[in-house]
Amino acid sequence: MFQFVIRRLLQGVVLLLILSIALFLLMMNLGDPIATMGSGRALTRPEDRARLTRQLGLDKPIAVQYLYWLAGNDWTKVDSDGDGVPDKNGTRVGIVRGDFGTSLVTRKPVSEMIGERIPNTLILMVASEIITIVFALVIGIYSALRQYSVLDNFLTTLLFIGYSMPVFFVSLMSMYIFAVLFKKWGLPYLPTVGMFDPQIGKTLTQVLWHMVLPVTSLSVIYFAAYSRYIRSTMLEVMSQDYIRTARSKGLPRRQVVYVHALKNAALPIVTVIGLDLPFLLGGAVVTERIFAWPGMGRLFLDHLSRADVSVVMGILMLVAVAVVIFQIITDIFYAWLDPRIRYN
Amino acid sequence: MKRNLYVLLSLGVLASMVLAACGGGQPATEAPAANPTEPPVSNATEPPAATEAPAEKKVATFIWTQEFTTLSPLYASGWFTTTTQQFWNCWAWLYDDKNVPYPYLVTELPTIDNGGISADGLTITMHLRDDIKWSDNEPITSEDFRFTWAMTVDPKNTVNTTYPYDQITAIETPDPQTVVMKFDTPLAAWLTLWKGLAPAHILQPVYDADGTLDNAEWNNKPTVGCGAYNFAEWESGSFARFVRNDNYFDTPAKIDEIFIRFVPDDTAQTAALVAGDADLGLFVPYSETPKLKDAGVTITTEPSGYNESWFFQVSEDHSFPAMLDVNVRKAIAMSIDFASFDRDVNLGVVQVPGSFWDALPFYNDPAIQPYPHDPEGAKALLDAAGWKDSNGDGTRDKDGVEFVIQHGTTTREVRQELQAVAQQQLAAVGIKLEILNYDADLFFSGYADKGPAYSGELDIQEWSDAPAFPDPDIYYWLCSEIPSDANPTGSNSFYVCDEELDALIQLQVTQLDPAERQKTISKINQIFHDKVYWVGAWQDPDVWAVGPRLSGVKFSGVSPFFNIAEWDIK
Questions:
Q1: CA–CA separation, A63 and A86 (whole Å)
Q2: Three-class DSSP labels, B303-330
Q3: C-beta separation of B75 from B219 below 8 A
Q4: Cα(B445)–Cα(B36) distance, rounded to whole angstroms?
Q5: How many Cβ atoms from other residues are within 10 Å of residue B46's Cβ?
Q6: Cα(B510)–Cα(B520) distance, rounded to whole angstroms?
């Protein structure tokens, strides 16, 4: 197992290197980050364009920009005062040494910007994932055990409706109904945007209260897909010989379903969850935007639209690393769930 | 089974009701029944009775649809960044709700008559008030002005723009209350200077230690300021808080705290304003205004100098041949019914501007009227220019060349709607319009990055732009600004090089006498109209949505929050 993990990690490093080159090349074609840096609503003046291009290092060849991003520029002299003569060593140490660079737009360290957003994203996404999994398990198992019953058909219809709706529609509709209309009708209503009411402050209750709409909107979409997976895998497992054997031995129904059937049905579900988990770090772009939730999705979108390479690359690489790690964890989890799987 | 169904449905309904009801004693954002933020009814100046509970703090919530990138006036870029500074920083002069400047940090505005501006225009002297101070009680002196200028033009600082400070050659500070600015050439747009100050006593040690202000903590946490409010907190992507500055040198603010929430989605902004979760929003889409008005929200438009504009490319090297003919450009302008578009799509909130200086009546004099919508007149002009549909395919042609031109803009929805209308209306006069859309960072990419506008790929370009409002200065149309391999940062994406226009643009920027400058701008204005280098689609003012709780609200198009200290919560 140890060798397997080491091998997968080494493969991951090579994969990440190739991925970073591909992404960096794509980023270079995003647009000009300096184009809209003018004062007020104005475009950037030509003199400022030329100066900023040089000062931010955007006049360097792509290969050099990538090298600085990857390995830093503290080993080479750069022109710090704009006289065209390199006069002192650079200050960047590169992503391989933990330096994600500095945002072209805010001039803040990217690691600091990402660090500010990750907790908010995780609060939202983990809550949504837990609710999704719990409800999906309950509904999926119920539907499998009572296939084609009235309730199964009803839930299937409902889930398909949920699954068919785009997340922006669910988000805006729920905001309109539970915040705007409920207030208009004199009912207790939910907040529209943000994480807390400024009059009260950022308390746990306030954050939980402000999470209701975004979490519900996210869960409605994912919940439908997850519960369908669980329903189909449970149906398949429930018709297996070992389940029949367990039943014929007189095991209680609860033990047959939750110990023997669910554990075996969990393998494909674990795959899906394992694939989804790293993307929790990336946040929910649409939901965060609509509910003004300060997460990674919004950070990504805001800086992508400004061609802020350092921030966008930082987020993408973070998610890529998470994908590699969670895939290894998923593989290890497989072995625990299914004793037949051996990695040596 | 039916029983299970009923139980499940009942649980669903119950859960939604519980969720909606369990947000605390009262809805989180609902104003308390007896508004505790109101001043005591009896007498506002009377001290409260000893037993009276302390009044709840007055918090006004503003929505910014875009987060500011920094708080430093040196590194500022974008409207939201420069506007937010007005809460906590200070300008040398402010502009009232008529966009008229008045002295703020200075005792009077420099003029030639009062000796503040020298006769040759190369020296401007400012006298500072002796009671102005930073929020830490340190006095604001001429050294702060000199330091702000020096740091802005210092090549070790990656500021977003050095203009207009790079026009100053030296600053002398003979005493703490006198600032003497020296120029090589007169700067007519000197009023665009001093929109924000950097405290020398805080930042000089940082610069001395780091050799740059790029990483100064003050840039994002300016704990020392000079506005009606002090910076308190900024959580990226979420909110920023500004609390009343108790050391403010002017009339203290009435509202205790300004809470800015970053809400990027227009529809969510509207929902928050309608639900009472916000007191102020801005740049609301015109289509949302009826819904907001119904909810008691006041919509205010404030001229900011901007106009949604069509810029015509006129270049023998790049343009479609017909675009070189002024009558063809005139025909295009007459083919589009901008007035109907503004009435139907923009709901009449804005009108068609006839001039690039539409928001500056002093300079738009005599006022230029937009070209009338006259498709028949347009057809006659095109016929006279030799562009006729000789092959009967519905598109005019000449010498075997079909009249097909490109119109490019960003992906903003209303621009795409205008493109669709224009395509239809130009087709009706026999011109085929190809429409192209780009993300803003791609559309405005420079010549070196092969941006579509700056590379000369578009016959008509559209975006919202303004002169250096409230100054009338422009520079895009200078011949020297035409982009090329030798001048990759040139801003003249229209490739217009008109010697008469060029000379007038260069002249106006040096004219310190407003009357003389007005005459020059009027000539430029007339050339724009007569030669159809520019056509306005709609005025693009700042659109504010003011919630019913706010009072005392006034806006300026230049310094929007000039009277923020007088704002109150009802």
A1: 19
A2: CCCCEEEEEECCCCCCCCHHHHCHHHHH
A3: yes
A4: 52
A5: 9
A6: 11
Structure tokens at B84: 């937010």
Contact status of B184 with chain A (Cβ, < 8 Å): no
| Per-position pLDDT tens, chain A of length 344 | 778 888 888 888 999 999 999 999 888 877 777 776 665 556 677 777 777 888 788 888 889 999 999 988 888 887 776 677 777 788 888 888 888 888 888 888 999 999 999 999 999 999 999 999 999 899 989 898 888 889 989 988 888 888 888 888 999 999 999 999 999 899 999 999 999 999 898 999 999 999 999 999 988 888 888 888 889 899 999 888 988 998 898 889 888 888 888 888 887 788 888 888 887 777 788 899 999 999 999 999 888 878 888 999 999 999 899 888 888 888 887 777 777 776 66
A310's tokens: 């350092």
Dihedral angle sign, alpha carbons of residues A256, A259, A260, A263 = positive
Phi, psi of A202 (to 5 degrees): -85, 80
Contact A68, A90 (CB under 8 A): yes
- Whether A206 and A197 have beta carbons less than 8 Å apart is answered as yes
Contact B444 A43 (CB under 8 A): yes
DSSP B218: G
Of B1, B29, B239, which has the smallest distance from its Cβ to A150's Cβ?
Answer: B1
**Kind of pairing between the strands at B93-95 and B101-103:** antiparallel
d(CA A117, CA A215): 17
Distance from CA of A113 to the nearest CA of B (A): 8
Prior bond to B372 cis, omega within 30?
no
Closest CA to A66 of A319, A320, A317: A317
For B402, the 3-state DSSP assignment is: strand
Touching B: A residues 231-250, CB under 8 Å: none
Identify all chain B residues contacting A295, using CB atoms and an 8 Å cutoff. 237
Q: Amino acid identity, residue B275?
A: A
Q: With beta carbons under 8 A apart, name residues in chain B contacting A143.
A: none
**A54 closest CA partner among B99, B488, B409:** B488
Chain position carrying tokens 């449905």: B9
**In this prediction, does ipTM exceed 0.85?**
no
The whole-angstrom separation of Cα A74 and Cα A68 is: 9
Between the CA of residue B569 and those of A167, A201, B254, B549, B566, what are the distances in Å? 36, 19, 8, 5, 10
Instruction: Compare all CA atoms of chain A with the CA of B71 and give the residue at the minimum distance.
Output: A106
Output the six-digit token pair for B519.
């005459």
Q: Cβ contacts (< 8 Å) between B57 and chain A: which residues? A: 199
Strand, coil or helix: B158: coil
Beta strands in B142-190 (DSSP E): 168-175, 178-183
Helix A204-238 / helix A167-175 crossing angle, nearest 10 deg: 140
- DSSP character at residue A110: H
A281 and A129 in contact (C-beta within 8 Å)? no
Contacts across the A-B interface (CB distance below 8 Å): 239
CA separation for the pair A299, A318 (Å, rounded): 13
Which tens digit of pLDDT belongs to each residue from B98-140?
899 999 999 999 999 999 999 999 999 999 999 999 999 999 9
* Percent of chain B that is helix, strand, coil (3-state, to 5): 30, 20, 50
Q: If you write DSSP's letter for every residue of A255-313 in order, what string do you get?
A: HIIIIIIHHHHHHHHHHHHHHHHHHHTT--HHHHHHTT--SHHHHHHHHHTTT-HHHHH
Q: A294 and B451 in contact by Cβ < 8 A? A: no
For residue A86, what are the contacts with CB-CB under 8 A and spacing of at least 6? Answer: A76, A77, A78, A79
Interface of B with A in 368-397 (CB under 8 A): none
